[in-house]
Amino acid sequence: MTVTHSENQQSPSPSRAPEAPVGLWLNGARGSVATTAITGLLALRAGMASSTGCVTDTGMLRDAPLASWTDLVIGGHDIVDTPLEKKAESLVDSGVIPAPVLAAVRGSLPEVERNLRTGYDVRSDTGPQAEVIDRLVGDIEEFRRRHGLARVVVINVSSTEPPAEYRPEHDDLDALTRSLADPQARALPPSSVVAYAAFQAGCGFVDFTPSTGARMPALELLAQRQQVPFAGSDGKTGETLLRTALAPMFTSRALHVLSWAGVNLLGGGDGATLEDPANAKSKLSSKAGVLPALLGEDVTAPLHIDNVPDLGDHKTAWDHVSFEGFLGVRMSMQLTWSGVDSTLAAPLVLDLARLTAAAHRAGHVGPIEQLGFFFKDPIGTDEHALADQARVLADWANGLDRQTGS
């Protein structure tokens, strides 16, 4: 297949010429979000799609030193073996991927398929987690060598996990490393095993889920030791995106929000996963912190997530806002957001791969708080207002070329 740039691709200036190919390693590579991102990237290369939804292809980031779409090479881990082609066909049937797009890129999917490896499955990987990490690191390093990659970014797009139970070794890297050798310890949840492996392999890491991932002191120490960046958590694609845009409106106009109730209806794999109260706890916790941070006070904000299987990847969120104006007059606002979850998430995954690779190249180590724009529960910052996050992102990303030292 002839590879071309998409029409909207910004041409890099000589001072920020793209580096050698960059790897995007997806944990959960056969899932809906990953398959949509893979198909979308191939479509961009084939000139079958514009980069609508990709923030890195807008004027806001015109001076950011980013790898081009043609310089991204995709691989990944997953615990299921559904062929990418079959998964993409199911996403065509559910209205996530347009049929002509899949027809145009179908021949390129086997090339990506050859880069996928078996991930960490707690049901079958019963040995020490240290052995699992060694295997995952080996897969990533082999991928890097085989494709001659300048660097690799690992992005977690697997299913949401329950919150991890605290263990003392989560605060102590040496103690954590020792516990990983114990086959009975199970010191880390799967998302944190993936983060540990990413750091050990010298890769940047992004958690697009609300799972624990790199959010423990010992893993931040490992990132510092390995001189790699990380970002997260929980991609902001729908209801929370809307809240972070609208909540500042009330505070800037001195309107008092009395309550902000929300209901989320979704199906597919996410709906089934979040039907489990333990898994839903991580998601609800990630979403719950936004409104108090933006409104400056606690507010009554009941939030429900309901599994409606026939919706598939189509998600509907309904919000009811009760607020008080001048002279104590009560008013309300009702909002409905209907979106296709993977279609909203996939371009952000591609954006985060490009931005994290650029941060790594510029020598950024540890949490990338400037990427909070993309997340419900951003690491390293308490800023949630979308417009302010966008300004921080643009200022930082457009200045990365001046920081590049490698």
UniProtKB/TrEMBL annotation:
InterPro entries per record: Myo-inos-1-P_Synthase, Myo-inos-1-P_Synthase_GAPDH, NAD(P)-bd_dom_sf
Top-level taxonomic group: Bacteria
Biased composition (Polar residues): 1-14
Gene Ontology terms for molecular function: inositol-3-phosphate synthase activity
Domain Myo-inositol-1-phosphate synthase GAPDH-like: 238-342
Region (Disordered): 1-23
Single biological process term from Gene Ontology: phospholipid biosynthetic process
Membership in a protein family: Belongs to the myo-inositol 1-phosphate synthase family.
Protein name (record): Myo-inositol-1-phosphate synthase
Species this protein is from: Micromonospora phaseoli
